Amino acid sequence: MKLEIRVVRSIARRKGVVILRSELAGLGSPAQLSRVLSNLVKTKRLVRVGVGIYVKTRLNKFTHELAPAATFEEIAAEVFRKLEINIAHGKLARDYNAGKTTQVPMLAVVDTGRRRITRRISLGTRIVIYERSGEYQRNGNKQ
Question: Using one digit for the tens of pLDDT, what is the confidence trace for 123-133?
Fold first, then answer.
């Protein structure tokens, strides 16, 4: 069976929309896997949102084109969950949720606590911006 068929089957069986390259590493050699993933991105069956991070696509019922299968915020949350990185809402989102402001935050800002993260996660023109407050420990509890 061709590697591309095995990769497509493996992706289809997964529940979430985010696929990490490390999850597919056992299916073939790194060079073969790179070729297959690159081909899937070219045919728009996957969208690359970061280094080794891909997102499933589905048919948009309005434009009849393939688009990411989830919103940008859902994709970012699933990426951090799969990478086991504890995050919290950024300061602006926390203020809005607490009712301190009526300004709706438009940027995807996440608080990483004390952890320093440089991983770029982007979809189109949207990117995740990191904020370090130092208020959160690894388990997400306040000190």
Answer: 989 999 888 87
- Examine residue 77 and state whether it is found in any structural domain, yes or no: no
Contact between 35 and 68 (Cβ < 8 Å):
no
What are the counts of helices (DSSP H) followed by strands (DSSP E) for the chain?
A: 5, 8
- State which residues form the domain around 55: 3-67
Q: Is residue 73 assigned to a domain?
A: no
**Residue 82 placed within a domain:** no
Please state, in angstroms and as integers, the Cα–Cα distance from residue 15 to each residue in 12, 18, 22, 64, 98, following that order. Answer: 8, 9, 16, 23, 33
- Calculate the CA 81 to chain-centre distance: 9
pLDDT digits (tens, 9 = 90+) for 43-69: 999 999 999 999 999 998 899 999 999
The partner residues of 86 in beta bridges, in order of sequence, read none
Same structural domain, 59 and 9: yes
28 in the same domain as 57 = yes
